[in-house]
Here is the input.
Amino acid sequence: MFKIILVWILLTFTCWGQHEYSVQNYLHHVKYQRVTSRNSRAVLTVSCWVVCGTDGGRRLLGTKPSTKWTRAGRARRPSSRRRGPMINMDELINQLSATILDDLIDDASLGVIFGVHRSNKLGYLAIEDGFKDNNGEHSEGHPIVIAPNMDVFGQVAIKNKQHECICPSCNRTLAASRFAPHLEKCMGMGRNSSRIASRRIANSSKEGNGNGNIASGTGVSDDDDDADWTFGGSEKKRKRKDKHSTKKKNSRVKNGGAAASTAVSDSAYNSLEGNISSGEQAAPVVNGAPTFESFGAAEKKTLLLQICGVVSEHTGKLCTRTLRCPQHSEEQRRNIRNFFKSFQTSTESEPLDSDNVGNVDVDSYEDGDSQAVREALTRGASWDQATEHSSTSSPADSTSTTSSSSKKPTTSKGGKKGKKGSKNSTPPSSIAVFRT
Amino acid sequence: MQTKPNERSASVFAQLRFADCSSLFTLPHYRRGVERNTQLRIVYTKPYSVGVAARQPLLDSEMANDGCVHLKEYKSVKGFRTYRLIHAYFVSCTSAEARRRKADSCICSICKKRGPRLHICLHCIYFGCYSGHIQEHAHRKQHLLALDISHGRILCFACDDYVYDSDYENQACEIKEISNRNLGLPHQYKSWEPSLIEQELLLEHPRRKRITHDSTIGLRGLINLGNTCFMNCIVQALTHTPLLRDYFLSDRHVCQFSDRPDHCLVCEVARLFQEFYSGSQEALTLNRLLHLIWTHARHLAGYEQQDAHEFFIATLDVLHRHCTGANANGGDSNSHQCNCIIDQIFTGGLQSDVVCTSCSGVSTTIDPFWDISLDLGTTPATGDTSKVPKSLLDCLERFTRPEHLGSSAKIKCSSCQSYQESTKQLTMKKLPVVASFHLKRFEHSSRFHKKISSFISFPEHLDMTPFMSHRRNNNNNNSDLAASSVADEPYINDNRYSLFAVINHVGTLEAGHYTAYIRQHRDNWFKCDDHIITKANIKDVLNSEGYLLFYHKQFLEYE
Amino acid sequence: MKEEDVLTAKMIESGELNRWKELLRLRLTECGWRDQVRLLCRDAIKQGNLEEMTVDQLNNEVTPKARQLVPDAVKIELLTKIKTFLQENTLQESQ
Here is the structure.
């Protein structure tokens, strides 16, 4: 039986080249043998007789060494066997483990080598390396500098650098360190920004953007929104981390003389949205009291929300009737409010092109300019004339508005955190939203 | 220079390759597979011409490597069948049966050994090891091609080297996938390689920028625009978030505001990334960014210096909204289904379990979160500081411990149908790739504001496993958690994180300043104080007060 | 050795060898060994005189160094696993 199988196998062996490749053919040629090892690195091979298919082989593998299928000579047993079976087994296992591990590591190393070799062969390495400069260095960029008083770029570390930047809102160039306060006003978020906004609207209206009129319903909404507005300085919940002083108040010059009154139509705010990115505007307030200018911007705005505010030509005072006062037209009310807003800033000789139509120099507004502007208005002077009269003195720091809205966007995840305390309890800055 | 998004996609041609060392990883929805990485370094290219106008689709399959002429000839004659067969049975065994056959047959015909580097002849049935036997067979029989069994690579004796053919490789990949699945192993990770188009582009533009240990690439100063240090610090942290950096440098962003690209905050952030990694040394002004964020997050607007944490959350929110487009469905309600990069990186799931004390019924909810705000605990009047947390781990313990809701806060238990007392416990259900911790140092009660400056130590490496939901729940239920189940699965449940950014607040509530420490290229730390960037060491970082801590997952898994 | 043969065969049959390979690969990636070796390879290629180095050349040059770079912790972990398997299966054999 044995010999028949052997012959059969030998026959198959020789006929290989003509046989179709198949797994069975492979398996036919494998033989079972004992393996002798000559060194500590165990050679692990197993072969088995396969008579037909692998079942025999599997069976064979599981059998004890004393089966009749074993061939070859007696295996040379390692000398450690003489010490005793258990110790020998442990050593064997250790040796085997070490060998297996070495093989695995070599295999891993070869794997990496294949990867790199392939990348190189396919040209990816060259692509990745790219251009080599004179030093053979690939990296662009400069070496890091580590030296006292120097930053990593080798530049001397000066705290306050003079830089300029452009405001995306109004496209003006200004000093970088002044940018944030500027932007705040520019975007209509500061305390005085609403005036600026209305001024812009006035500009745009003059240029034919006849949007936005009136008023009738706005009075109600004004008042409602008015409740949100609280006076600047009293919003304590905002974390104040800067010591920025409110120079604005200091720079306001009280006008000697009559309490000029301004009248700006609240309806003007309906048209504010056209040119201002922010939809929230504050309604300026006018107080008929003589010392109107001495009022804080916030107070002015609040007052203008409640009264007509048109400057009487006779008395020079503000009309204190209701917002629907029949004596004055909406146009007048609007004008006054526009002008009032413009008191926050003074426009220098800016080109009032279409881009800048609502552009007001948010930084250089002085309250002291209000008088001249007001007078120009009440004389029915043109807008341009009015601006010419305004002084172009130093930028006012109408800053430190503690105005920031507590309105969180609905998609904010602020409320979804685990034990997060309420940090965002800041007061609103959205004052008097006028909507058509 | 302002470039439109289309142009930018050509001008920002980034590859996610790693310079010098480190493995590759890409974003989940672009690649399949598992790869573990400790660090990543980016190589990206910035072509100097903006010639390609339209965004080129990156075709992954456009690789036509043909090996050598001998292999080509073989392929045309024999095709793939033999190759597949060999692979399925001897290289990556696709079944138990195959493994048995491999165990049986993979022995050198001559020396009867299993190695070293056993090869199979591709022309006939012959196993030969590399110590001369396969070579001898090839020479004798003029069978020029053989296959390395352990790695499945084709050796061409005529070329005397291994050759690579993409068709065969694809076959090999398929079979390996099957094999892995059969064994319960994770997917085989396939590294990114440039497609044909990408290769052309890269050859055309050979200049490369790398983040190395001694290059300033990746570092830029940021000018303070008037108490905007809070914004500067957050931007530094974001631009050094590895996964986010990869996303933007590989130009993955498609703007949703096609008609108003200037409105898109994500485009602006992408532009910032380009600036940061351009190698330029000039400090940047974030005027446009500030304008955009104030436009889209009105509640933040206002000149006065703001809280960095608030700014961080608002920024993520706007980015998230802009990633998904202006018309995101339902806004927040779909947030857990959103697949934008912000959600992929930053969103985790916080599990809240409320256990009714009478019936032990558990009511579980899972809320998404972008960061964890940790209470620092007040020092009791007695001066007993034993219970006050002193480390980040202490804070996390406090955060995830069960809290007995007192009798004044009874909840309606659905099974008891009555109001009962309960315990509530928060645990991490799903951790984001970037875990941000916010130490609540600023107290805002109605009476006073103050800053808690107590020292909280935080580690460089963090293992979040003890705070995960399954762990805590098991701990509560039975004392001896079956740790072995976790150990057996090294591929999943890997919750190791590494610190990469720390934002500190210096000063008092009224007058203070934010600075940031960021990590780059393995273990280089830098201090970012507005426009002054200096080298720092890890000790300084770990000794700093710590207000916002950013940890990045060390090992990423892909589907 | 017969036992070794049997054990090896068992390793392959059960797929345990594949699992060890994968685990080793994982650990070596985690600890940065793969990156180091890759770097060694690339250095070897750049320094090599030939335009393209063959796998054999790379293997001869890089693998000895690579062996030394493997961290002990990884070795111990794998060794433990291997020994456990071998012991379990040897016990079974003798039963």
Remarks:
- The longest helix of chain B spans residues 166-183.
